[in-house]
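Long-time lurker. I teach an intro course on protein structure, and each term I like to show students one example going from raw sequence to a predicted 3D structure in token notation. This year I'd like something fresh instead of my usual example. Would anyone be willing to generate the tokens for the chain below so I can use it in lecture? Attribution to the forum is fine with me.
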Amino acid sequence: MLTNLPVSRALAQGKLVISVDETRTPGDPFKLPAVLRKLIEADIVALETGNPDSQKPLGDHIEASAPVCDAFEKLEAILRMAYNGIGAIVGANIVPGGITEADRLGVFISYGWEKGQLGHFTEDRLLVLGKLALGGETSVSPPAWRYSATLVSIIRAQLDTIESEQRVGRSGHRQISTADRIERRNLLEIHLHRARHHYCSASDDLDTTKELAKISYPPRRKAKFTANSIPAIGPPFVTANIYFA
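-- Reply from a regular --
Happy to contribute to a lecture. Here you go:
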């Protein structure tokens, strides 16, 4: 595999951090230190090309894997819609002739949704679900229970894009091992957290600064105190003196 979803997301955030930093002037307190920016750029190149010593311009590598990252994101989104569509088939408890829950579970299973559950998405699982979606055109009956032709068409397009990118990866230096990919992703995430720390330290707002949202880190929401939110202080506790004769 050329990438996986965590890698795709780390790459997307890394590129976002760099693109935002390019718009900042030298006097901007949120502008990244030059050393940290170079580290993030090197991490992106190493993760996308499998060559940490590559001296090619960053843009030459970013555009190469953008289609496959986008295809996986679209594939996940459309498969979630397809899954929800099965759940939306009108049941026999609503109208006569509707789908029974046993048949609904059978449709889920035919499309790869084990036990009828959405489950956790990985790239390998997305590819399996995508291929089962194409096969459902003949394996699921009646046709009214199948994915719509529009969904199937979109799924097929994403699979074609991914397969094309895989051929590129297998033919050259862009293919890297899973272990290397994880190690390089972790390094990129470490440097991204350093970028977040820089943003927090650049303002008195610390981790509530709205600038964090520009690099896909949600700012911490400030607590709001009102008269109603402050607990009332009750009367002092008074103990009674009890005397025994």
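Some talking points for your students: The two ends are 88 Å apart (CA to CA). DSSP finds seven helices and no strands in the chain.
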